[in-house]
Design brief:
This protein has three helices and two strands; from the N terminus they run αββαα. The chain is mainly alpha-helical. The chain has one domain. A hairpin with a 6-residue loop joins strand 1 and strand 2. The chain starts with a helix and ends with a helix. The protein binds zinc ion. The site of zinc ion (ZN) has 8 residues, from helix 2.
Length: about 60
Amino acid sequence: MSSEDIKQRRQCRCCNRMYDYAVSGSYSTRFICEECMKIPEPIRRVLISFNKRLTEIETKLKKA
Ligand SMILES: [Zn+2]
């Protein structure tokens, strides 16, 4: 398995979108995609916490 490919492909913690990390000229970070990096930080933090809760609920529903 090519670990290099997996490292570059990431899921945004804010919007759940898959994005390419470490693209030159991109503002994306290890956890946040470029689009979400444009959102003001306090708002982004709220979205991340909502997304986290949604993910938790989804996981619980899948187990049920
Ligand atoms: Zn995003």
